[in-house]
Structures are given as structure tokens and as C-alpha cells.
């Protein structure tokens, strides 16, 4: 019986984890779409450069867990949009470092504010005070999972 209870607990945790993953994914994609913000690959890349400073394409690919070629394509688009720039890598003359530009920082800030505003509007429109308290508690729980 104890094995059955443990198995049920595991299944419940797995089911909850999958539901959470799917729901958060849909939520994030929906907010980004409504807020007209850059793709996840672009915003994550800008965020990494903003937090970490200049990085090579290889370092960015590793941090984002994507292929080098995919990262080069994203970086190329961000560079053509004026959101990142290239500079020589002082540690390796054969490679270049990517850094976020002032326009990139401004776009990152605009995107974050747009997504926050979109989420706030959804909360205002769709959640009661009790729902908001529940959401606040859920945010604290999610924070604990980190």
C-alpha cells in the first residue's frame, strides 16, 4: 500500500509538473504575442548579454542551450537590427564578442515593460481579489521551486 501511495504521489507530481509546464509555456507565448515583443530567442540573447556583458557566439549558444549555427542566425538578426554589436575578442584574436547596444538595452526594457503591462491588464480584467491573492501565493510557491 505504501508503494501505491508513493506511486500516486509521483504521478500527481508528474501530472502537476506537466500541467504547469504547458500552461506557463502558453501563457508566456500569449503575453509575448499580445505585447508585440521580440521572439524568445532574441529576448533571451539580449538578456544574457545585458546580465553577463560581452560573450562569444559559442558562449551564448552554450548558455541558451542551442546550436552554434542557430545562435549565429539570432545574433545576425539582432546585429542587423542594431541591438547588438561585435567587437574583437581580446582573449582570442580569431573570434569576436557580442555586446548589447544602448538600442538593445532600450528594446529589452521596452519589451519587459510591455509584457508586465500585458500581464497587469489580464490580472485587472480577469481576476477577482481572491484570485489575485491565490496568484500571489502561487508566485511565492514558484519562487520556492527555484
Automatic annotation (TrEMBL):
Keywords: DNA-binding, Transcription, Transcription regulation. Residues 34-46 have a biased composition (Polar residues). Transmembrane segments: none annotated. InterPro entries: HTH-type_Bedaq_tolerance, HTH_MarR-typ, Tscrpt_reg_MarR-type_CS, WH-like_DNA-bd_sf, WH_DNA-bd_sf. GO terms for molecular function: DNA binding; DNA-binding transcription factor activity. SUPFAM superfamilies: Winged helix' DNA-binding domain (SSF46785). The keyword Transcription applies. The keyword Transcription regulation applies. Residues 1-146 form the HTH marR-type domain. Residues 32-51 are annotated as: Disordered. Pfam families: MarR_2. This is DNA-binding MarR family transcriptional regulator.
Amino acid at each position: 500500500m505504501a508503494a501505491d501511495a508513493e506511486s500516486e504521489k509521483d504521478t500527481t507530481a508528474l501530472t502537476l509538473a506537466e500541467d504547469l509546464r504547458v500552461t506557463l509555456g502558453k501563457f508566456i507565448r500569449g503575453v509575448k504575442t499580445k505585447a508585440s515583443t521580440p521572439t524568445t530567442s532574441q529576448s533571451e540573447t539580449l538578456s544574457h548579454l545585458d546580465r553577463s556583458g560581452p560573450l562569444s557566439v559559442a558562449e551564448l549558444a552554450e548558455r541558451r542551450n542551442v546550436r552554434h549555427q542557430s545562435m549565429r542566425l539570432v545574433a545576425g538578426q539582432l546585429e542587423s537590427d542594431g541591438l547588438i554589436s561585435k567587437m574583437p575578442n581580446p582573449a582570442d584574436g580569431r573570434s569576436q564578442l557580442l555586446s548589447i547596444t544602448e538600442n538593445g538595452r532600450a528594446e529589452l526594457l521596452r519589451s519587459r515593460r510591455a509584457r508586465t503591462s500585458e500581464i497587469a491588464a489580464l490580472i485587472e480584467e480577469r481576476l477577482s481579489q481572491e484570485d489575485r491573492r491565490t496568484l500571489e501565493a502561487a508566485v511565492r510557491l514558484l519562487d520556492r521551486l527555484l
